[in-house]
Design goal:
The complex is a heterodimer of chains A (178) and B (430).
Chain A (H helix, E strand, L loop, with lengths): L3 H4 L3 H15 L7 E2 L23 E2 L1 H11 L1 H4 L34 H11 L10 H14 L9 E2 L14 E3 L5
Antiparallel strand pairs in A: 2-3
Helix pairs in contact in A: 3-6, 5-6
Chain B lengths: L1 H8 L6 E3 L3 E2 L14 H9 L34 E2 L10 E4 L17 E3 L12 E6 L5 E4 H4 L5 E8 L17 H5 L2 E10 H8 L7 E6 L6 E5 H6 L2 E6 L2 E2 L9 E3 L12 E7 L14 E2 L5 E3 L7 E6 L10 E10 L5 E7 L7 E2 L1 E2 L9 E9 L4 E9 L8 H8 L12 E4 L5 E3 L3
Parallel strand pairs in B: 6-15
Antiparallel strand pairs in B: 1-2, 3-4, 4-5, 6-7, 8-9, 9-12, 10-11, 10-15, 12-13, 12-14, 16-17, 18-19, 19-23, 20-21, 20-24, 22-23, 24-25, 25-26
The chains are: A mainly alpha (178), B mainly beta (430).
Chain lengths: 178, 430
């Protein structure tokens, strides 16, 4: 019996051979390799509202100010005012008469998303270049600019997900409509 | 030919079925002069145009031989249309399919619409991993080559960005084309492994309710999907119209959630985390949520609505002269198959059933057509689809009345194309 690795020299060959393999085995192949959650610690970036997935470390807005000004302000402005409609991250009022400006402060329902998104996708020109400590600090600064945490409030895996967002009750879950 | 001569002697009897020149779809059913080329056939048969045909040059010289990877004719210049890049948002943006120039129901891979949140990663499949972790008995990691050995299924499905057609809600009067206004929809045959196969191999724990799917692009774009959808018809798509999924569609693998808003079909899929609650990613909270007039926002609005669009004639085209035209377009629904498409030429006052030209597959584009005799007077062409669950495509007025104008997502409204006496076709609101 040849090994799977020898089989794979071309996509077409792989497809052909898998058909033979399955028909003889009478069941689907099972080729996943076991891995431990510990081994995924550096790979799994999901930080949930429950606090699950938040890394160790902590940060304050005061610590995050310098990083924000050097890495984020080019798009988001020194005070989060943005340089375009898409990059404004402070202000806004969901109850305003005109079409509401939707920002982190006025719209986002979970503080966990602020950390999760900064860690996985920001800054846009160099995603994942902030370490966990810096991500906590920048998240704290963004929340501070929105008046949601104090300048020296320490945010970590326990405290950050508990920051209450003004529009937390502004969403209606439609996931049962499928 | 006999049939044609007979028809020519008698005046062709055109059965009118709705106002402003809509003719019975029976005239499209392969009846020679009664068919699609009616106006043109009459012109050709009616007089000697003085054509003297000669053998063309390309019939006298051998062309190039076989090629390694084919391309479109140099005489066909179809292109996706994309907006301006933003240097502060590298790789972000979208491109739209040239719907008005395509026929049938399958979008060529080169022309499938795109939406990226941090550009197209250049992924070496040998270094790509798919992880399944979270609420499973055994977290697993899969290699690309191993995944190719699994039993696969092939299905034809449309994919539509939930922001498609959003410009029509802006309140302005965008002078667009079918492509620029509605080009964030495409359709392909997707081949891959049912997600349920992979989840069952890892062993889903009883308390699990959702999966969190994450891509390997620079944004590590994530979306949460209810577990019941993942176990139903979600697919790990590895092939697109028979070839490995294109990089801009998620090579080497993407999640595919049939019928659901495109963004949930996470490209470059590298992680499925089984969870109790949704992860609340940026792209399911700050984005892809639909703010209603009462300022509450609908979240996880997954299925794409029943919808149709006349692609010819359509915006920025010109109807050259009076005559009979084959009005045609596409229809689709995220809830099932297309059961019926009606067309109006008088802005929705009267309607006639269109002919369905293609297969009516579940959650796939369906092609429709109807003959239309244009007499040179102003017309407004519309199409209205009904799906297999009985849902009927709404008017723009109804969509705005129900959802307001703050929201930019999930606009399935009837498109109105105005035809002026000079034959210019433009987007209009009626």
């Amino acid at each position: 019996m040849y090994t799977s690795r020898k089989l794979i020299s071309a996509l077409a060959l792989a497809g052909f051979c898998s058909a033979v393999f399955v028909s003889s085995a009478q069941e689907s192949v099972r080729l996943g390799t076991p891995v431990s959650e510990a081994d995924l610690a550096g790979f799994d970036l999901i930080a949930e509202p429950s606090g699950a997935g938040f890394p160790s470390g902590s940060g304050t807005a005061a610590q995050g100010k310098a990083i924000f000004e050097s890495r984020c302000a080019a798009c988001h402005g020194l005070n989060g005012e943005g340089n375009s409609a898409a990059t404004i991250i402070v202000g806004g009022d969901m109850q305003s008469e005109e079409s509401p400006l939707r920002t982190v402060g006025s719209y986002w329902p979970y503080a966990s998303t602020v950390f999760d998104f900064i860690r996985r996708a920001m800054p846009a020109d160099a995603p994942k270049s902030l370490n966990d400590e810096e991500a906590y600090q920048v998240a704290a600064y963004v929340l501070y600019l929105n008046g949601l945490v104090g300048e020296n409030e320490v945010l970590n895996a326990e405290t950050l997900p508990q920051v209450r967002m003004p529009n937390a009750d502004g969403f209606i879950d439609q996931s049962d409509i499928q | 030919m006999k049939q044609g001569k007979l028809e020519k002697k008698r005046q062709p009897r055109l059965e009118k079925v709705a106002g402003n020149g809509l003719l019975s779809r029976r005239h499209l059913l392969g009846l020679g002069l009664g068919g699609a080329g009616l106006a043109m056939s009459q012109a050709v048969m009616g007089q000697d145009a003085g054509l003297k045909l000669e053998i063309p040059g390309w019939s006298k010289t051998p062309g190039p031989g076989p090629s390694a990877y084919g391309s479109a004719s140099s005489h066909v210049g179809l292109e996706r249309q994309s907006g301006f890049g933003n240097p502060l948002y590298p790789g972000g943006g979208a491109s739209r399919s040239p719907l008005q120039h395509l026929q049938g129901t399958i979008t060529p891979n080169n022309l499938h619409f795109e939406r990226h949140h941090a550009g197209v990663p250049d992924i070496d499949p040998a270094g790509h991993k798919l992880v399944i972790n979270g609420l499973v008995r055994q977290p697993l990691v899969f290699d690309y080559e191993d995944l190719l050995k699994y039993t696969m299924v092939s299905r034809i499905y449309f994919l539509e960005c939930s922001g498609n057609s959003g410009a029509l809600l802006y309140g302005g009067n965008p002078d667009g084309t079918a492509q620029s206004l509605h080009g964030l929809v495409s359709c392909a045959e997707w081949t891959g492994i049912p997600i349920s196969t992979l989840l069952e191999e890892a062993g889903v724990l009883p308390e699990a309710r959702w999966i969190a799917a994450v891509g390997a692009d620079a944004a590590s774009m994530g979306r949460s999907v209810p577990l019941n959808k993942a176990m139903d018809d979600s697919m790990l798509a590895l092939f697109q119209n028979g070839e490995p999924v294109r990089p801009e569609q998620g090579y080497p693998m993407r999640l595919f959630n049939p019928g659901w808003e495109g963004n949930t079909s996470v490209k470059w899929l590298t992680q499925i985390k089984v969870t109790r609650e949704p992860a609340q990613f940026r792209d399911e909270t700050s984005k892809y949520t639909d703010t209603m007039p009462d300022r509450k926002s609908l979240q996880f609005t997954f299925p794409m609505d029943v919808k149709s669009l006349i692609t010819s004639p359509s915006g920025q085209m010109t109807v050259a002269r009076n005559g009979v035209y084959r009005v045609n377009g596409i229809a689709w629904s995220g809830s099932g198959s297309i059961r019926r498409v009606e067309v109006s030429a008088d802005g929705g006052s009267t309607w006639a059933d269109a002919l369905i030209d293609s297969q009516q597959l579940d959650k796939a584009l369906t092609r429709f057509s109807i003959p239309w005799q244009w007499d040179g007077s102003p017309a407004v062409l519309q199409s209205r689809a009904t799906d297999s669950t009985g849902n009927v495509q709404p008017t723009r007025e109804a969509v705005i009345a129900a959802k307001g104008t703050i929201n930019r997502y999930h606009n399935p409204c009837i498109q109105s194309w105005g035809v002026s006496p000079s034959g210019e076709v433009t987007n209009v609101y009626v």
